[in-house]
Write a structure and sequence with these properties.
Elements lengths: L2 H9 L1 E9 L7 E10 L13 H9 L1 E2 L4 E2 L4 H10 L7 E9 L8 E11 L3 E10 L4 E11 L3
Antiparallel strand pairs: 1-2, 2-6, 3-4, 5-8, 6-7, 7-8
Protein name: Thioesterase domain-containing protein
InterPro entries: HotDog_dom_sf
């Protein structure tokens, strides 16, 4: 990684990577990953809160040349590696983010992402970013990851 992505990547810590039965469909599995990061001044916007673009990058951060993904698509790859199904890497097709109350300096964020579907051509999931210190949702996202044609 180069530039500002390198700094953010070095700050993200993987707290959990798991594959569990889905609560709604116990015969199916879901991938889940949890990353943590502490908000610092380099993540600010002009009003002193975490910039939405920075938060979006953390949710969707990936390197297209290697398809090494974090946050939103990461549980797809955890589930895929665990089950061996649908072995072709995909790319983000859509990412829809809702921003809730912003995070400020020193807040610890917990980025939790879970698979929704895992098909041969399209995969989807959702991601929530929680402010651990205030027990508040900072952002929520839904994404689609597709195999390129």
């Amino acid at each position: 990684f180069r530039g500002f992505k390198a700094k953010f990547m070095s700050q993200l810590q993987l707290a959990e990577a798991s594959v569990l039965p889905k609560a709604e469909e116990p015969d199916k599995l879901e991938g889940r990953t949890v990353l943590q990061v502490i908000v610092d001044e380099d993540m600010f916007n002009e009003v002193g809160t975490m910039h939405g673009g920075c938060l979006a990058m953390i949710i969707d951060m990936h390197v297209s040349s290697t398809h090494a993904c974090l946050c939103s698509p990461m549980p797809i790859y955890v589930l895929r590696a665990s089950t061996g199904i649908y072995g072709i890497f995909g790319v983000q097709q859509s990412l829809n983010i809702v921003f809730h109350p912003p995070a400020v300096l020193g807040n610890q964020l917990r980025v939790m992402s879970t698979t929704l579907t895992l098909g041969s051509w399209a995969r989807s999931g959702h991601c929530e970013v929680w402010n651990v210190m205030r027990s508040r949702l900072v952002a929520s996202a839904v994404y689609t990851n597709m195999v390129p044609s």
